[in-house]
Amino acid sequence: MPQFLTLWRFFNKELIKFLSLAGALMLLGALWGQALWGFVGALVITLLLQWRAMYLLYTWLRFNSHEPPPNLRGIWASVVYTIYRLQTSERLARENLVSIVERGRASLAALDEAFVLLDHDSLAAWWNPAAERILGLQPGDQGRSILNVIRNPEFHEYFQRKPQSDTPHDGIKLASWVNENQFIQCEITRFGKNERLLIAYDITRLHHLEQVRKDFIANVSHELRTPLTVLAGYLETYLDQDDLNPRWRRGFSQMQQQTRRMTNLVNDLLMLSRLERTGANLVKQEINMPALMGQLFADAEAYNADYGHQLHLDIDSLSHLIGSEQEIASAFGNLITNAIKYTPKHGSINLRWWTDEQGGYFSVTDSGIGIEQSHIPRLTERFYRVDSGRSRESGGTGLGLAIVKHVLLQHDAYLSITSTVGKGSTFTAVFPSERIL
User: Fold this and answer.
1) Computed from CA positions of residues 349, 382, 168, 279, in that sequence, does the dihedral angle turn out positive or negative?
2) Distances in Å between the alpha carbon of 366 and those of 78, 122, 383, 419?
3) Taking a C-beta distance cutoff of 8 angstroms, is the pair 295, 425 a contact?
4) Tens of pLDDT, residues 6-56
5) Helix ranges, 64-203 (H)
6) Facing residues of 424 across strands?
7) pTM of the predicted model as reported, rounded to 2 decimal places
8) Which of 2.130.10.10, 3.40.250.10, 1.10.287.130, 3.40.1670.10 would CATH assign to domain 207-280?
């Protein structure tokens, strides 16, 4: 309604101007007896003025829109003002957007991390200078597929892998193809319509520190094994003597208990070190899963003798698994042992193996006290304990789930944990379909 009133006011003004001009010309024409020609003259003059205004407006929009608008009057002045205001607003918005983009690019260019913007066809659209230094990109690589630019099989496998909501998005660590003494971490973030942002950064120093840590733990653990073996031997010899003083026997028994605990810790550390060294060189053999499940169930029944749990075994698939039977048996055994140890006596524990189109699954479900959600993300960290006192009483080292995690990673699998406080927990090892036969 306000727009209509405004147009009506402009129309009235133009009509009054026309009538005034027509009246004046008709009076002049009446002096010569040609009043009608005065009206026609007024109409022609009005049309010429309107045409001039339209011509000036068109010329300004077509050729000189970046300059101030022409000085028009009436409704044309309002039209020109509205257009000029919209143009000014659009120009400011565009300049602001360009400024933001330029600042963003300048910020990314100043970073030491490599950023590569990929379109929906995985073509390299833009990258910062660090990408040329870390990933070896060249100016001529713009518009090429990133898989043709980076010819690393491990990167190709990671890039083409479908993201899964249950797996952590930690990227992949690769030996650099630009500098043989360098290691890089690559991560991919999806956005928009299947566009991706590739981020890569130098982790050579972190890799060396991690290697030093691994070597230190492996060496110390190996060196501790011999004195612990000697101590265990002597303690066992003393405890076998029938005439040993009861006071000494109590002390030797405590020493033997702690020595066994230390030996278990050293063995777990050595196993972790071996798993880390093995890496991609893992043995790939066909594992008869129904047979392995039967063996694990028999071992669980023997271990369960002091706990009195009800054990159940469900084998819903006869499919086999590709991997290392020794490592898989160790990882699954850890999950079963944990369920038995940390479930109050006379509980219920269910072991299950099944497959579907997505892959294979091994789960251990217990009726224990459950785990608070805040602890679940950290359960596979080394030495992490939900209840440290209870773990020590049960003889745990805090490395069992860390070992499970490393074994599963070597089998392209991951560990899914669900738990409800007061109702129990379920630990599920999820294997991809490529590992199932």
Assistant:
1) negative
2) 78, 45, 22, 10
3) no
4) 555 655 566 666 666 666 666 666 666 666 766 666 677 777 777 777 777
5) 75-110, 129-134, 146-149, 153-160
6) 420
7) 0.56
8) 1.10.287.130
